[in-house]
Amino acid sequence: MRKINLFDTTLRDGEQSPGVNLNVKEKLEIAKQLERLGMDVIEAGFPATSKGDLLAVQEIAKTVKNSSVTGLARSVKGDIDAAWEALKYAEEPRLHVFLATSPIHREFKLKKTKEQVIQTAVESVKYASQFFPIIQWSAEDACRTELPYLAEVVENVIEAGAHVINIPDTVGYITPKEYGQIFSYLREHVKGIENIILSAHCHDDLGMAVANSLSAIEHGAGQIEGTVNGIGERAGNAALEEVAVALHIRRDYYQAETGLYLQETKRTSELISNLTGMVVPGNKAVVGRNAFAHESGIHQDGVLKEKTTYEIISPELVGVSTNSMVLGKHSGRHAFKNRLQELGFENSDDEVNKLFVAFKELTEKKKEISDEDLKALLIEEKVSTQESAFELKAIQVQYGTSQIPTATITLIKPNKEMVQEAATGAGSVEAIYNTLERCVGQSINLIDYRIQSNSGGRDALAQVYVKIKVGESEASGRGMAQDVLEASAKAYINAVNRMLLLDKINDVSLEPSLLN
Ligand code: KIV
Ligand code: ZN
């Protein structure tokens, strides 16, 4: 079996999904789970884009030890310097540097000739070689680049010192057969290519990202890039869990395998969906809610007689547990801790104690606590942040069919002062948000609002995701409560707090070399 490396870019290309913005704690939690899942490479961010991104990559590079951590850089010295600043503490610092090669990008974006593109690419790889032991070079929009020219650029950057060559289908344009042919062509025409790893990076604009990635493997790619749940710029990236499971289930055909611990798949998918607010469609392959549900009578009958009649992937393979246990008011600390362990979560005694308090509070409102509730509690506990935050003290909403909705809210400000306001709105949520805007004392635009239930049942917890804009800054927020209005208020306050934190991070002064 050939080993295929998986390069996860959930925290970089995935974070470029519209509406997604993660804070450092959330990124770190995701990175640790990606490491547990067994990703070979984790692209932790794009350090030159903001000080917040640089700090997040730095934190991940210091923490993650079993996966190689990388960061993206354009082919300019400032970006490479910023990436080194972020990655120099990593166990295996790796740079991902890119430059567009297609005629459209050369002419309209870069305004560079073919020769200038080669020169810039070569200079950036040589410059990066002073710092980084491993350099990956990407030809942005490779699939719309003239093949002989692509081969020429690739040969030059290999000579300059690149170790991995990535062939992105940046705009999701290519078909599986054509993509495979690019890999074959490069392997035939590029000197020195036998010593490097060829990598595939596919976008899903035409719904072919996973098929294209698998075709690349058949034509010699040794690394596949993508994201968990397939999130990413526009229609997203190749879903790595689909690639890994396809290789596993069809190993007879591909004769290749990844190093993923597949039983961590579902948990990783849930964590990322929860923290990004990007809901996984029910019919999504491998990790969708319905991926293992059999609806038709004929199918159910078949599965009861012999699972493999209609089931090619067993739920257990990807960590979908089929025996859901319910805890409640009378469950003790021991049962609680056991269930967390059975769900695969390791927590310190201190964390278990805090979680147990939150669990007990929840049992006051909700009779049965499902695995979904436990996971939601756990995620909140792990990523909650206290720094200089607004805190919800009390909320009251008056609503009636012949009444104007009115909200009254008491909030603790970051300086610990208490503020109380009331306002009306066309609906209860608008009344709450108008009131919160008054409490915060700033004009805030709500640009996205989404609500979902955490599990089934009338008493399910509500999860609300919002995105707000203040001036030019945007921030997203999450809130969970049994009541949808309380969850709505919490999500809004969470977004305001993140904005404060983001501003604080971006005030941090960096070493002068990074500011050039
Ligand atoms: O899609 C793309 O081309 C990219 C590169 C930066 C690798 O994400
Ligand atoms: Zn991309």
TrEMBL record:
GO molecular function, one term: manganese ion binding
GO biological process: L-leucine biosynthetic process
Pfam families per the UniProt record, alphabetical: HCS_D2, HMGL-like, LeuA_dimer
Cellular component, GO annotation: cytoplasm
SUPFAM superfamilies: 2-isopropylmalate synthase LeuA, allosteric (dimerisation) domain (SSF110921), Aldolase (SSF51569)
Residues covered by the Pyruvate carboxyltransferase domain: 4-266
Lineage summary: Bacteria, Bacillati, Bacillota, Bacilli, Bacillales
Coiled-coil regions listed in the entry: none
Quaternary state and interactors: Homodimer.
Renumbered residue ranges of the record's region Regulatory domain: 391-516
Catalytic reaction(s) noted: 3-methyl-2-oxobutanoate + acetyl-CoA + H2O = (2S)-2-isopropylmalate + CoA + H(+)
Signal peptide per UniProt: none
Classification via InterPro entries: 2-IPM_HCS-like, 2-isopropylmalate_synth_dimer, AIPM/Hcit_synth_CS, Aldolase_TIM, LeuA/HCS_post-cat, LeuA_allosteric_dom_sf, LeuA_bact_synth, PYR_CT
PANTHER family: 2-ISOPROPYLMALATE SYNTHASE 1, CHLOROPLASTIC-RELATED (PTHR10277:SF9), HOMOCITRATE SYNTHASE-RELATED (PTHR10277)
Leading EC class: transferase
Pathway involvement of the protein, from the record: Amino-acid biosynthesis; L-leucine biosynthesis; L-leucine from 3-methyl-2-oxobutanoate: step 1/4
Protein name: 2-isopropylmalate synthase
Domain of life: Bacteria
HAMAP family assigned: LeuA_type1 (MF_01025)
Positions contributing to Mn(2+) binding: D13, H201, H203, N237
Cofactor(s) listed: Mn(2+)
Role according to the record: Catalyzes the condensation of the acetyl group of acetyl-CoA with 3-methyl-2-oxobutanoate (2-ketoisovalerate) to form 3-carboxy-3-hydroxy-4-methylpentanoate (2-isopropylmalate).
Assigned protein family: Belongs to the alpha-IPM synthase/homocitrate synthase family. LeuA type 1 subfamily.
EC id: 2.3.3.13
Stored PROSITE patterns: AIPM_HOMOCIT_SYNTH_1 (PS00815), AIPM_HOMOCIT_SYNTH_2 (PS00816), PYR_CT (PS50991)
Organism per entry: Bacillus weihaiensis
Keywords: Amino-acid biosynthesis, Branched-chain amino acid biosynthesis, Cytoplasm, Leucine biosynthesis, Manganese, Metal-binding, Transferase
